[in-house]
Amino acid sequence: MSRNIEPLPQALALLEKLEQGAAEKVQANLDAFSPDAAELILGYSFTDIVCRAGIDLRTREMLTVAMLSAMGTAPGQLEFHMRAAINTGVTRDEIVEIVFQVSVYAGVPACMNAITAAKEVFQANEVG
Questions:
Q1: Is residue 44 located within the same domain as residue 60?
Q2: Which of 67, 74, 80, 93 is the most core-located residue (most Cβ within 10 A)?
Q3: What is the pTM of this model?
Q4: ∠ CA(35), CA(37), CA(40), 5° rounding?
Q5: Domain interval for residue 23
Q6: d(C-alpha 14, C-alpha 110), whole Å
Q7: What are the tens digits of pLDDT across the range 48-58?
Q8: Which residues are within 8 A (CB) of 91 and not within 5 positions of it... i.e. 6 or more apart?
């Protein structure tokens, strides 16, 4: 039985900080799947983990870009977090270096996928 529960305001505020309009878009996407999804997924990932004080948000986004690049299986998430990294002060040059680092530890195919994502983000950033 599902409960009608509201997602945590702290998680939505963080999403909005990462990218303007993201909170509403992500919440609507998750709500269309299940009324519990936003609370469970956003509450855990963004409130319980990403909002922790041990690492600043800029560094967390750099780490997230590296991990998603290495995974090579989440292009939409990778592009979102590349944009979020830029929005938290990570430079284009730093993203390029992260992607190069991925080639050493996750392989050239993962690096090539990350290059594709980065090019999309950089181009959109120049246009926007």
A1: no
A2: 80
A3: 0.90
A4: 125
A5: 1-52
A6: 28
A7: 899 999 999 99
A8: none
